[in-house]
Amino acid sequence: MKDLTKELHTQCMTMQMGPSHPAMHGTVKLLIDIDGEDIHTVIPEVGYLHRGFEKMCENSTYHQVIPYTDRLNYVSPFINNVGYVMAVEKMLGIETPERCQYLRVLASEISRLTDHLTCVGASAMELAAFTAMLYAIQGREWLWELIESLCGARLTTTYTRIGGVAYDLPEGFRPQTRKILDKVQSLIDDMRGLLEKNRIFYDRMRGTGVLNAEDCLAYGVTGPCLRAAGVYYDVRKAMPYLVYDRLDFEVPLGKAGDNYDKFMVRVFEMEQSIRIIDQVLAQMPEGPIAVDDPKVTLPPKEKVYNSIEGLVHHFNIIIKGIRPPKGEVYFAVEGGNGELGFYIVSDGSEKPWKCRCRPPCFPIVEAMPKMLEGAMIADIIPTFGMVNMIGGEMDR
Amino acid sequence: MAESITIRKLKERFGDRIKVVPSPFDGMDTVAVKRGDIADVCRFLRREEDLDYDLFRDLTCVDYINETPRFEVVYHLYSISHAHAVRLKARVPEEDPTIDTISGIWVGANWFEREAYDMYGVKFNGHPDLRRLLLYPEFVGHPLRKDYPIDKEQPLVQLREEMKGVR
């Protein structure tokens, strides 16, 4: 082998992959040192999508931050909305009504489905399994129709409000959801049939991008990547929020921590999400969708348009904003890729003094050198696909 | 309210060097640490068997511009096996914004510290590679400081030498 290397005159070469390589999910650059096809070092370079999320939050009222959180992870915006408003609600010390909590769980799980479908489909496409991608996009399309009927937008949802949610379920939502979930389930089954035992897919996913449990934790990796390494940690189970402790679902675990396990964990999680949505639709009680606290929640639109009290009330909250007491709070939800935490510091004014978002992608991308060094160039594609980097979330 | 095991152990080990801060909103154990002690405290939290803080959750910085010391570096840690969480806070003065790195204890702290350096200008002693992370090297100032105006613009930079073709 050594002679062959001499004959072939290979030498170490630095290659720039990205910022907009077709197989990169978003604008990120990998600076790779390669020798032939072997990777020596990988240096991820981030920041191409940095928009100053935290600076914007510090200059907006608490309500005005909600639309910004949509743009953090644009394939699962509901989860970001929920995480942020629940952190603020903790500061205000309010508990939302039961129906609102169920609605938030419903929205989060639909978002998790779209997030995982995008990830699984796109990475399958990059390994040349284009059909699987078309299936995933079709499933996502149906789910986005649901999201659209729920809040009027597909990506920029801004569904939650501090103290509640914006809208109740539209008419005919339940049968519609039931129908769509059945179709999505059969799509997932088809996708599994196509990929799970496919020789090419299996060989390229199995044994690549391995990150063991200990490294995962030290890096702060959470979500499917951590669970693929066999660590039982899901924010929904560890620190149950909303009504997750009343719902019956399992946390799928992998063993090896390689790309194949990450893929399968995502697939099983989608099935669990469908299970959760089923239970939510069956259990959801009637009732108000927001707390009845005029200092916090916006009045319903009929009141704003038809009564002076409603108008003044609306005006007060929009212009003056709400003032949580002084203090700090850290609140985490289980996002599509892991723990999504918000650390908010209030100085008692109407704007957050500090609004930190702990993005789940950030530590996973940081751990990429660990997953890739010593591997081959071709391994970058499935590994990066399973990292599921979302630029908006990582760079903020 | 009874003391949690984390607070008890930390008090036993460090005594007056730490101060417990109430955190009424989320009920998380919150401890104020002197900046010289931060590496010791973190190492203790990581190594001690009953504590075993293995998951590095978050590191960030807060700018309290009207107070002295001005900056506060905030750490969030979690233990998977014992399911407890702790928040550490260390104040850093404006004239000498340095604090010890903890990237030797949790390797993942590396990028979080680089981000805090990028955004707030807090330097981490002993950090293996303290460069800007989200912004480009030519950027002047630290944008998340409260005295950095939100509408400030910076001039476009020239193409760097190493970006022209293959290095």
Automatic annotation (TrEMBL), chain A:
A GO MF term: NAD binding
Main localization category: membrane
Domain NADH-quinone oxidoreductase subunit D: 127-396
Its EC number(s): 7.1.1.-
Cross-referenced InterPro entries: NADH_Q_OxRdtase_suD (IPR001135), NDH1_su_D/H (IPR022885), NiFe-Hase_large (IPR029014)
Enzymatic reactions: a quinone + NADH + 5 H(+)(in) = a quinol + NAD(+) + 4 H(+)(out)
Topology within the bilayer: Peripheral membrane protein
Gene Ontology cellular-component annotations: plasma membrane
Domain of life: Bacteria
Keywords from the UniProt entry: Cell membrane, Membrane, NAD, Oxidoreductase, Quinone, Translocase, Transport, Ubiquinone
Subcellular location(s) of the protein: Cell membrane
Purpose of the protein: NDH-1 shuttles electrons from NADH, via FMN and iron-sulfur (Fe-S) centers, to quinones in the respiratory chain. The immediate electron acceptor for the enzyme in this species is believed to be ubiquinone. Couples the redox reaction to proton translocation (for every two electrons transferred, four hydrogen ions are translocated across the cytoplasmic membrane), and thus conserves the redox energy in a proton gradient.
Subunit structure: NDH-1 is composed of 14 different subunits. Subunits NuoB, C, D, E, F, and G constitute the peripheral sector of the complex.
UniProt-listed HAMAP family: NDH1_NuoD
PANTHER family: NADH DEHYDROGENASE [UBIQUINONE] IRON-SULFUR PROTEIN 2, MITOCHONDRIAL, NADH-UBIQUINONE OXIDOREDUCTASE 49 KDA SUBUNIT
Family: Belongs to the complex I 49 kDa subunit family.
Protein name: NADH-quinone oxidoreductase subunit D
Gene field: nuoD
From TrEMBL, chain B:
EC number from the UniProt entry: 7.1.1.-
InterPro entries in the record: NADH_DH_suC (IPR010218), NADH_quin_OxRdtase_su_C/D-like (IPR037232), NADH_UbQ_OxRdtase_30kDa_su (IPR001268), NADH_UbQ_OxRdtase_CS (IPR020396)
Root EC class: translocase
Reaction(s) catalysed by this chain's protein: a quinone + NADH + 5 H(+)(in) = a quinol + NAD(+) + 4 H(+)(out)
Keyword terms, alphabetized: Cell membrane, Membrane, NAD, Quinone, Translocase, Transport, Ubiquinone
Entry membrane topology: Peripheral membrane protein
Localization (cell): Cell membrane
Domain NADH:ubiquinone oxidoreductase 30kDa subunit residue range list: 32-153
Molecular function (Gene Ontology), one example: quinone binding
GO CC, any one term: plasma membrane
Coarse class of the protein's main subcellular location: membrane
Self-association state and partner proteins as the record states: NDH-1 is composed of 14 different subunits. Subunits NuoB, C, D, E, F, and G constitute the peripheral sector of the complex.
Family membership: Belongs to the complex I 30 kDa subunit family.
Record's function text: NDH-1 shuttles electrons from NADH, via FMN and iron-sulfur (Fe-S) centers, to quinones in the respiratory chain. The immediate electron acceptor for the enzyme in this species is believed to be ubiquinone. Couples the redox reaction to proton translocation (for every two electrons transferred, four hydrogen ions are translocated across the cytoplasmic membrane), and thus conserves the redox energy in a proton gradient.
Protein name, entry field: NADH-quinone oxidoreductase subunit C
Organism, scientific name: Abyssobacteria bacterium (strain SURF_5)
Organismal lineage: Bacteria, Pseudomonadati, Candidatus Hydrogenedentota, Candidatus Abyssobacteria
Gene from which the chain derives: nuoC
